[in-house]
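Revision sheet: structure tokens.
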Amino acid sequence: MDWKRNSHIAVTGFCIGPACHYWYIYLDGILPGRTFKTLAKKIFLDGFIFSPVNITLFFIAISILEGETLSQAKDELVSKGWKIYLAEWIVWPPAQLVNFYFLPTHYRVLYDCSVSLVFDWFYSYVKYGCDLEEHSSS
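Predicted:
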């Protein structure tokens, strides 16, 4: 197990969590209610506005933790960010439907973090890649 890499991924989650908290408060403020139309708007805004912000924050935070430059973070965001963005469109719309329909605002970040805990494995895979030969010989 790579403890340094795992700690970097965990720290990025702690950085992004507060942004999620305020994002959900903002969404509930501009789009109150749980009608289908409201849910569709929240999911649309979450995917098209917050998801790119979230992915950008991830690559900036992880680059800072690893002593890389912002230019390196930008290059990695451009080369790898699209993979995460596509995967987010598979995972997050159904997850956010549950989040926005069933949960009060004060539980949304906890739920989001639970889904993110699993999804962060994919973030790590995209960020670091996976050399199966290297891992199978250890």
